[in-house]
Design goal:
- The protein is of the alpha+beta class.
- It has three domains: about 350 residues, ABC transporter transmembrane region fold; about 40 residues, no CATH class; about 230 residues, Rossmann fold.
- It has 19 helices and 18 strands.
- The strands form five sheets. A six-stranded mixed beta sheet has the order 12-15-16-9-17-18, sandwiched between helices. Strands 4-3-5-6 form a four-stranded antiparallel beta sheet. The protein has a four-stranded antiparallel beta sheet with strand order 8-7-10-11, covered by helices on one side.
- Strand 10 and strand 11 form a beta hairpin.
- Helix 7 runs antiparallel to helix 9.
- It is elongated, with a radius of gyration of 37 Å.
- Bound molecules: adenosine-5'-triphosphate and magnesium ion.
- The site of magnesium ion has 4 residues, from helix 11.
- The site of adenosine-5'-triphosphate (ATP) has 12 residues, from helix 11.
């Protein structure tokens, strides 16, 4: 599945903004002092950029003067103003220098914080993902989880490294400019505000449309990507059924949809800036005209500046010039922020999805019984050891007395009256009773969907049971730490998963400290040794794409070798040999018999010949055990198993 880009599908709603403080808190948790430094430096940068506007009237007022009763602007002689000009020049130069240095400072700090923060996010996300229960992955599309690492993290990167800083700068600029405008002339400021109000209405309309189609474009992109990926995966099926033409036609439709959305998104997005810029120019001219009128007609000016100096009791030429600069800055800032709106929407939606995953409940583990290797002397005394003695013991500390107790791991597994459903309202297993005594081989057979894999999912605690008990050597498995429980089980899952890496590494995945010899030994047990040595690089052959350079059966053999390598006291083999030819299967069977010796084993197989020798065969039908016994018992009974075995009838 392609990443569906759900984060972007969401409209920009007010709720999304609630995520902002959470995201900032998260950012500050890791980079508090650096972020404070960044914001401090940014403030200096902003001050230095607005400083020109603030100083302009002062500079003009220093250089020029008017005779009383005249509007003619006269210029002072150099000796009259020399000292002031040098002083102002020095102040401005220092401000700009501070601005440049702060700018370098915050860029360097931000490069560090930005990348570091993303790394942290991905680490936290991955750690959380590893702790989630299997049920989370059942209900969440995997592409959707993937997209949190890519699209959503990327949206947050844009936001943290650019949008957030620009928004802060814009906020400061607007505060400065607005204060200065009111300082110089309230009436002129009001005209500027009115203009900005109209600009905001334009942004809401045009920018809103742009954002809408921009989000639609992301959805369509997701669809196109998803379709391409699906068609790539299903290429063989498409060809087998001659569906090339239909598949092209379906592609054309969604591709056209994408084109349409992209066109409109860009259309509205592209016209917004020119509209706002031209509007800014209009406002500029308006302020110039009104300012000059104020100046010539000496209209009484309302300004905060009057409180401090007489100069600003009228609109003088310095104020008009400064206002023009400030108006430009004001409209520019607003245009810039408007461009950032969709970025903010995307980032918030992305952060929402990220925190949704991070707030999921992790797999709970209240277990306190652990698994240790041990030695057992002739009196049955158990001592813990690090050596590979092929003996294991459960170790637990008595809560009341604090006393250590060891119990030998025998492999006695009991399912007592177990009910289970993946969803609360729909039971998949009913009243399951299984007694697996130490060293026994228990077979689970039955039709597709009967519940065989589900039973093994309960033993390794991928899911927790609704009712009943599962006991392992008499211990309720809820009391056993999950890691230790799973370590005691050598499992071949129904779906083979191999990782990118060499064959050697894949087999060693079963037990990371296995020596090369032990890996070869495991491969021999699984009867995989011969074919592996015939691969181009033998055990060092790289596997990619879940081992797509191997045949289905070869992949299964490696999965069996991996379980053999784990050397665990109890084995669970789910359809382990389903893709292997009967001759190889017989060979594997021999190896496995050795592996199963003295180990409790659960075997699931559709090919009934494989389970003939089991100590007990459970026949499942629709989540219930309907028959149980040895092969001979069940044949003699002439029930469902007999019919299955003789091919007379299929289970429903
Ligand atoms: N992750 C899941 N979420 C919800 N329902 C599930 C899940 N896995 C299996 N089921 C349902 O549980 C029932 C038993 O499935 P299970 O995988 O145990 O069958 P099975 O006996 O192993 O079949 P097969 O021989 O095809 O492997 C089925 O009806 C199936 O639809
Ligand atoms: Mg199954």
């Amino acid at each position: 599945m392609a990443a569906p880009r759900r984060g972007i599908q969401k409209k920009f709603d007010k709720n999304a903004l609630k995520t902002l403080p959470i995201l900032l808190k998260y950012l500050f948790k890791y980079y508090k002092w650096r972020m404070i430094l960044v914001f401090f430096l940014l403030t200096l940068v902003t001050v230095s950029t607005v400083a020109a506007g603030i100083f302009l009237p002062i500079i003009i007022d220093t250089i020029t003067y008017t005779e009383p009763g005249s509007k003619a602007v006269l210029i002072h002689t150099w000796p009259e103003i020399k000292d002031q000009v040098i002083m102002l020049g020095t102040i401005l130069a220092s401000i700009y220098l501070t601005g440049i240095l702060s700018s370098i400072g915050y860029s360097v700090t931000m490069a560090f914080v930005g990348q570091g923060f993303l790394e942290r996010l991905r680490i936290d996300l991955f750690n959380k993902m590893e702790s989630l229960p299997i049920s989370y992955f059942d209900r969440t599309p995997h592409g959707d989880i993937m997209s949190r690492y890519t699209n959503d993290v990327d949206a947050i990167r844009q936001f943290v490294t650019q949008t957030l800083l620009q928004a802060y700068q814009a906020f400061l600029t607007i505060i400065f400019v607005v204060s200065m405008m009111i300082f110089y002339s309230v009436w002129l400021a009001l005209i500027a505000f009115l203009g900005v109000f109209v600009a905001l209405v334009i942004i809401k309309h045009v920018g809103g449309n742009s954002a809408k189609y921009f989000m639609k474009q992301q959805v369509s992109t997701g669809k196109v990507e998803g379709y391409i990926e699906e068609m790539m995966n299903g290429q063989k099926v498409v060809k087998v059924f001659n569906h090339e033409e239909e598949s092209k036609a379906a592609f054309d439709i969604i591709n056209e949809e994408l084109n349409n959305d992209a066109y409109k998104a860009n259309y509205y997005g592209n016209i917004l800036m020119p509209i706002l810029n031209n509007f800014g120019n209009l406002l500029y001219i308006l302020i110039a005209i009104v300012g000059i009128i104020f100046y010539f007609f000496d209209i009484w000016n309302l300004s905060l500046g009057r409180l401090f100096t007489d100069i600003y009791s009228i609109v003088n030429i310095g104020v008009v010039v400064a206002f023009l600069g400030m108006t430009k800055q004001f409209t520019q800032t607003i245009a810039n922020v408007s461009q950032q709106m969709s970025m903010i929407a995307m980032a918030m939606a992305g952060a929402n999805r990220l925190f949704d995953l991070m707030n999921q409940e992790s797999e709970v583990d209240n277990g306190y019984v652990t698994l240790v290797r041990c030695n057992i002397d002739e009196n049955g005394n158990i001592t813990e050891t690090n050596e590979r003695t092929h003996k294991w013991a459960w170790k637990y500390v008595h809560k009341s007395t604090g006393e250590l107790e060891y119990r030998e791991l025998k492999g006695d597994i009991l399912l007592d009256n177990v009910d289970f459903g993946y969803f609360e309202d729909k039971l998949v297993l009913h009243n399951i009773e299984i007694y697996a005594h130490p060293g026994q081989q228990i077979a689970l057979v039955g039709a597709t969907g009967a519940g065989k894999t589900t039973i093994t999912n309960l033993i390794n605690r991928f899911y927790d049971i609704a009712d009943g008990k599962v006991r392992y050597d008499g211990i309720n498995i809820n009391k056993i730490k999950k890691d230790d429980l799973r370590r005691s089980l050598g499992i071949v899952l129904q779906e083979t998963s191999l990782f990118t890496g060499t064959v050697m590494e894949n087999i060693r995945y079963g037990r990371l400290d296995a020596t090369d010899e032990e890996v070869y030994e495991a491969a021999k047990i699984a009867n995989a040794y011969d074919f592996i040595t015939r691969l181009p690089n033998g055990f060092n052959t790289m596997l990619t794409h879940n081992g797509s350079n191997l045949s289905q059966g070869q992949r299964q053999l490696i999965a069996i070798a991996r379980a053999a390598c784990a050397d665990a006291p109890v084995m669970i083999l789910d359809e382990a040999t389903s893709s292997i030819d009967t001759r190889t299967e017989a060979l594997v069977q021999r190896g496995m018999d050795k592996l199963m010796e003295g180990r409790t084993t659960f075997v699931i197989a559709h090919r009934l010949s494989t389970v003939r020798n089991s100590d007990c065969i459970m026949v499942l039908d629709q989540g219930r055990i309907i028959e149980r016994g040895t092969h001979e018992d069940l044949i003699a009974k002439k029930g469902t198993y007999y019919q299955l075995y003789t091919g007379a009838f299929e289970l429903e």
